[in-house]
Design a protein that fits this description.
The chain is mainly alpha-helical and 125 residues long. Helices cover 58% and strands 10% of the residues. The radius of gyration is 19 Å and the shape is elongated. Keywords: DNA-binding, Transcription, Transcription regulation.
Length: 125
């Protein structure tokens, strides 16, 4: 049997909880307050846990927030494709040899993905 969090939800890595909440916010199509997120999670997490996760995600610049009454309402800064692109850029920025990383990445692309990348790069010219 898996371990339980004090709030009753199954213990998951922080990244998994963040991904779950990010998906929920993306599906909502509008900014949500911590109370609304807690409700949509169906009691998996306490209100205070949701506030902590949303605040951490805002600090990481994954979410925007705006006052909504006495609380903040949170929304993703970009869509799923935008987040994937940010992760790729972060990985690239963390490596000392960008050319080697890009060469390896390009060399491992399928022919159709390589063709698509060429088309996208040509659009920028």
């Amino acid at each position: 049997m898996g371990s339980q969090m004090p709030d009753g939800g199954p213990k998951q890595p922080n990244g998994a909880r963040e991904a779950q909440i990010l998906a929920l916010l993306q599906e909502a199509g509008a900014a949500l307050t911590p109370g609304e997120v807690t409700e949509r999670l169906g009691g998996e997490l306490t209100y205070s846990s949701v506030v902590t996760i949303l605040t951490r995600m805002h600090t990481k610049q994954l979410l925007t927030r705006a006052r909504h009454g006495r609380a903040f309402a949170y929304a993703p800064v970009t869509d799923d494709a935008g987040f994937a692109a940010r992760r790729m850029r972060t990985v690239l920025d963390e490596r000392p040899d960008r050319q080697a990383v890009l060469a390896r990445f390009a060399g491992e692309l399928s022919r159709s993905d390589a063709d698509l990348l060429r088309q996208l790069l040509d659009l920028d010219r």
